[in-house]
Structures are given as structure tokens and as C-alpha cells.
Amino acid sequence: MLRIEHVSKRYGKKEVLKDINLEIGPGIYGIIAPNGAGKTTLMKLIATLLFPTEGSIYWNEQEILSLGAEYRSILGYMPQKPGYYRNYTAFDFLSYIAVLQGIPHDAAEEKIRTLLTRVNLDPDDRKKLKNYSGGMLQRAAIVQALLNDPKLILLDEPTAGLDPGERVNFRNMLHEMSSDRIILLSTHIVSDIETLADRVIFLKDQTVYVNDTPANIRSILDGKIYAVPQDYLLPHNAKVLEEQPSDNGTILRVCSNKPLPGCKLLKPTLEDVYLMIYGIRK
Amino acid sequence: MTGKLVILRIRHLLQAKFFLFYAIACLLLNVYIADITFANQTYPKYLADFTRDNGIEITEKSIAAGESLEDSLQKNVLVSDLYSISNPWEEVTAKDIYSQLSDLVPMIRNQKLMEQKYAKLQDRIDQIQNQKEYLHLSCGSYTSDIYDSLFSMLMRLVTLEILLYASGIAIWTAYEDRQACTEQSIAATKTGRNIQKTGYIASLILVFATWIFIAGGTFLYLCIYCHLDSFLRSSLSTGFHIRFSSVMPIPFVSWIPLTGMHALQIHLLLQFVLACIFHGISYALSLRQNSSLQTLMTLFSSVLLLFLAAYVFVRTDLFALFELSVWNPVMTAYLEYMWFTDMDLYSVIPMQETWICIVWIIITIVMVLTGLKIYFRKDLNA
Q1: Which of A162, A188, A262, B159 is most exposed, with the fewest beta carbons within 10 Å of its own?
Q2: By residue range, what is the domain housing residue B256?
């Protein structure tokens, strides 16, 4: 169990996170917020890369900073911009990380091979990392985060650079692993966690804005999302979320508190909630 | 586990080929300079052959042996050297040197310390006389030139090379993971921020290996190919060795009995100690600062400031401040040609360079330990 208690992070006068409180048990948690809203800072605080200005983070009721190596041995972290040594092969780089994780040589080799196969990198494991594509590097970084069979997995924007097929494979992989561990996934791509996450955390104004199951979050907008023709006269407080071209002209996806007669009622998605919370950035 | 990590880190650092090229280029340069400076000189070789058969001390027997050699240009120089030897200490005492210096150099304010220094030096002068070190042949009339070429040029070059390497590899190692964006992935592993500790040890081992390669290679070349045998076996305080300090010529004297070989060895050793200090300071600074450029600028401006301070304090006769400004590894390296001698007017205690190094080794250890501690509590936000 991971517990975040009154955690704040400031850089000088700039407050990045303010009084974050979370209790996180096994399962997949999606952290959603626009760029620059503090997702990465929260991930880094949990990964002990940053130190809270106020508050503490606990793993099984023990402060993570006092646990030190014991805590990091159950942690798997994939940073937003994973780095690599250009002249290493994927296998060599992962072997190096395995040593840093304190994994015995034979076990590490077996684990690396299994995971590389799982992310379809096994045919390229002897290729130098400088010759890898962006997607391949991303997959190598995912393997690096999973090498020590972590109980707590932090993935910061892990699907950036992955093609649709790889994304599906990645989601399946996370789903398989999620039964007995905590997976925290930060992203601004809502579709990544729509079907995957057990709980979704929205960050707004430097703090936790919503923390609930996707179904409960979507239910906030039940009966409020409509498909509306472009020439329809919208009520004053209605908000256009999306414009979709169709055979009968452009159809608007609209959120309205008042019923819109003659318009088709749609099922709300997490993206609708996202747009209602953060607005549309032009 | 730490041992395994250090080995891995060394293997990893060895992949940075430019450090390897740098070391090879330095050795080649040193060998080239040693070659053009010493290897082609015929007199040291001639003298080496002569002293091998007749010993390094000038005696009646060796004078006779010199005269019986086949006629040649070298023989003429040798015989002239054998006859022209004198005891420079017969009429000069340490007290005389001190009184002349204190008359001539207005900046000497700390007279008591200087008096003590020269009083201590008299013991060594007596020893030179009693053991007839001044009769050692060394390189005869070429002794001062050979000494200058060896210690004022070649050894200073080796020192500069190893100091640059030590600082460079320290900064490279400390920042490498940040440059490669691997710092966060690595810091979140079980080893965590201990990676900098292993980085420090690994890069220090490489400094040692490179020092062995550059300095050892140069040393071996000097010993094997440069025919300096008689110079290396003789005391450096011979009758042929007159130094010109900034005010007056004085016979060469060192704090400890010093043959050419001893001088070479202790120069190399102190060189390595200085390299460890430079490496440690550069590493400690890198752990505190956030960019390699910032660290490089800090080091560069510190070196400039130290030279500037020394210059200003000399010009303004602020002796105490000047003395303080030379108590650092940069000035110690710069004044290498004066190590273990009393030739500099700037050192107030015997073997000052050694004491400076001891003090700075302690400072460096403290800086590295606090640097590692700071890195442990540093936000890794790059």
C-alpha cells in the first residue's frame, strides 16, 4: 500500500504540487492532467528522485526515504524521457540496469530475455541502442522498469512513441501484471487509460481534483453529452467538446446541463470529463 | 556488489575513447620531447659510461681515469669538469643565504619563519659536505640544464597532462548519466544515488591507471633510452649545480638527500597526489552543481583568481596574503620546479608542497564526502 500524505512541492516561490493526499492499493491508476500540471513531479516524488517540500510518502506504513534501497528494490520507474547509452546493445544496457538493481547474473539474463520477447524486441537485442527507433527505445525503457519484478511500477507517459499495435500489446501486458501490484500511469492521452485503469486521478490547481473509478467519473456527465448538428442553436451554457465531420455536415459533441430536444444523447467518455475539467486549449 | 559496480563503471568509462586517445597522445608527446631533449645528447651517454666504471664521485682515481680516455670532444668536457669541481658550501652557510635574501627581498616580512627555515636547512648543508655529495659528477657542467629540462619542462608537462585528465574524467563521470538522460532511471534503481560513489571510485582508479601509463611510460623511456644514468644516480646538490633564484645564484640544496632518481620518483608521486586532489575537487564540485559547463567555469575562474591573487599580493608586498595564496594545489603544481628545494622564497616551512598536499587531501576528502551527501538529498530534476 502506497500512501501520500499532505505532500507539497515548491521550487522557490513556484508551487508545483499542493497538499496531495492519496491511498493507493494494488491495481492500475491513471494520473491525468495537461502538460505541466505536475504529473511528472508526483511520479518523481514517489520514485524518490525529488524530495517533498512538505508531507511524506509511505510504503506499507514506512516512510519511503527512510526505507532507501529496500523501497527502490520494489520500485520500477520509467521516466518521461528515458535515456540510454548510445553504444550499448539493448541486452548490455539492461544487464547494466540489472546489476544496479542487484539482480543475480543468471536470473537477470533470463528475465531480460523473457521481457524482450514480451515487447517484441528479442530479434534486435544485439543491436546498438543508437540504431533503435523511438518506439523501440520506449519498449526497451518499459523492460528496464520491469526488470526487478517490481511491486510498484511508475510509468511516466509510457505510450508516447508507440504505434497502435504496440500500445495494445503494452496495455495487455499491464493488465496481466496488475493483479498483485500497484501500477501508476501518468498520461495526458486519455484513451490510454480509459479501458485500462481501475482508478483515475485528475490533477488540477496543483492538487488532486478527482480520484475515482472511470465509471464513476464518466457518470458525472451522464445525460449531458449530445451529438448536435452544426446549425443547431445551442443554449448559453452548452460547451462544444469536439467537431466531427460526417455525411450530413459537421456534427458537434456538446455538453449541456439542459436537455437538447431533437439531439442524440451520447455515452460520456473520460475525454469529455477531461475537456470539461481543463477546457479546450487553442 | 560495489566492487562489481565499480568494474562495470570502469568498463563503461573505457568506452569513452577520447580519454584513451588523450592518454596515448600525451605519452607520445612526452616521449617525443624526452627524445629530442635527452636521447640525442652525446655527453650524458658518455658520462653514463664513464661513471659506470669509475663511480659517480670525483676522486683522484676518477680524474686519472678521465685523463686516460681516448681524445674526443666529450673527454675535453669531462676532464674540464673533473678539474673544475669545487665545494660551493665552503664559504656559504644557510644563514648567509637568508641574510642576503632578507636584505634583497623587501617582501619577506615573516622573518622568524624564514629564519627557522634556513636554520633547519643548515643540517642538510652539513650533510652534503660530510658525505661529499658536492663531489658527485651528475652531468657535470650540464647538470643545471638537464635538471631544468627534466623538472621545469618535462615533469611539469606530465603534471599538467595528468591534472587535466583527472579533472576531465571526474566531470565526465559525474555528469555522464545526466547528459545521457539515464540519471533518473539509474537513481530509481536499488543502487540509487550510490552510483556517484562508484563513479568516483571508478574514475579515481582510471586516474591512477592513466598516471601509471603516462608518467610511468615517460619515466621508463627516460631511464632506458635517455642515458641519464649518471644524473639519476648522483646527488643533485653537486658543485656543478648552481641555481639562479630571483635575486642571486645559490648552490642547489634540497630538504632531503636527493639523487636524480629520487627527485624523479617523488615528483611523480606528488604529481599523483595532486591528480587525486584535482580529481576529488572536480568531482565534488560536479556533485553540487547542475551543469558540466558551470563546473568547468568554476574551476577555470578559480585557477585564474588564484594566479591573479598571487600576482597582486606579490606586487603589493602583502607577504602573509601571498603566502596564503600559494597554499593551494594550483600554485603547488605551477611551482613544481621548486619542489623539495629551498629555491623558492615563497615557502616558509620545509617541504611546504608536501604539507600543502596533505592539507588539501584532507580538504578534498571532506569535499567529496559532503558532495556525496548533498547528491543524496538533491532533487534530480534534469
Answers
A1: A262
A2: 2-39+86-376
Cβ of B186 within 8 Å of Cβ of A78? The answer is: no
A134 Cβ under 8 Å from any chain B Cβ: no
How many beta-carbon pairs below 8 A join chains A and B?
84
Read off φ and ψ for residue A203, nearest 5 degrees.
-100, 130
- Whether B56 maps to a domain, the answer reads no
A99 touches chain B (CB under 8 A): yes
Low pLDDT (below 50) residues in chain B: 107
Whether residue A84 and residue B195 make contact (CB cut-off 8 A), yes or no, is no
Q: What kind and span of H or E run contains A59?
A: strand A54-59
Q: Among B175, B183, B189, B380, pick the best mutation site for testing chain A contact (most A Cβ within 10 A).
A: B189
Distance, CA of B276 to CA of B357 (rounded, Å): 10
**Domain count along chain B:** 1
Q: Rounded to the nearest 10 degrees, how much is the dihedral formed by the CA atoms of A255, A259, A263, A267?
A: 50
A window 182-211, beta carbon within 8 A of B? none
**DSSP 8-state symbol, B243:** E
pLDDT value, residue B382? 63
Rounded distance between C-alpha atoms, residue B122 and residue B242, angstroms: 17
**Grid coordinates belonging to B379:** 532533487
Question: Cα separations (Å) of B268 from A186, B157, B360?
Answer: 56, 12, 17
Of the candidates A164, A150, A155, A183, the one whose C-alpha atom is nearest the C-alpha of residue A75 is A150
> What pLDDT is stored for residue A107 in this prediction?
93
Rounded to whole angstroms, how far apart are CA atoms A60 and B327? 53
State whether A77 and B185 contact (CB < 8 Å).
yes
Neighbours of B144 (CB within 10 A): 17
Residue A84 contacts B where some CB pair is shorter than 8 Å = yes
Point out the residue among A72, A77, A83 whose CB comes nearest to the CB of B181.
A83
Minimal Cα distance from B180: which residue of A?
A: A83
CB contact under 8 A, A102 and B186: no
In a domain? residue B208 = yes
Of A49, A81, A102, the CB nearest to B188: A49
Q: For residue B148, which of B37, B301, B294, B52 has the smallest C-alpha distance?
A: B37
- Domain assignment present for residue B381? The answer is no
- Nearest residue in B to A40, CA atom: B381
Would you give the DSSP letter of residue B140?
G
Q: What is the pLDDT along chain A (282 residues), one digit of tens a residue?
A: 899 999 999 998 899 999 999 999 999 999 998 888 899 999 999 999 999 999 999 999 999 999 999 999 999 999 988 889 988 999 999 999 999 999 998 999 999 999 999 988 988 888 999 999 888 898 999 999 999 999 999 999 888 778 888 888 888 888 888 888 999 999 877 887 888 899 999 999 899 999 999 999 999 899 999 998 888 888 888 888 888 888 778 888 999 888 888 888 899 999 989 888 887 655
Rg (chain A; Cα; Å): 21
Q: In this predicted structure, what is the pLDDT of residue B106?
A: 59
The pLDDT, as a whole number, for residue B245 is 64
> Would you call A68 and B192 a contact, using CB atoms and an 8 Å cutoff?
yes
Asked if this assembly's ipTM is beyond 0.90, the reply is no
A264: helix, coil or strand? strand
Within a domain: B81: no
Report the candidate in B64, B38, B237, B73 with the shortest Cα–Cα distance to residue B55.
Answer: B64
Nearest by CB: A49 against B1, B8, B184: B184
For chain A, domains (ranges, CATH) are 2-218 (3.40.50.300), 223-278 (no CATH)
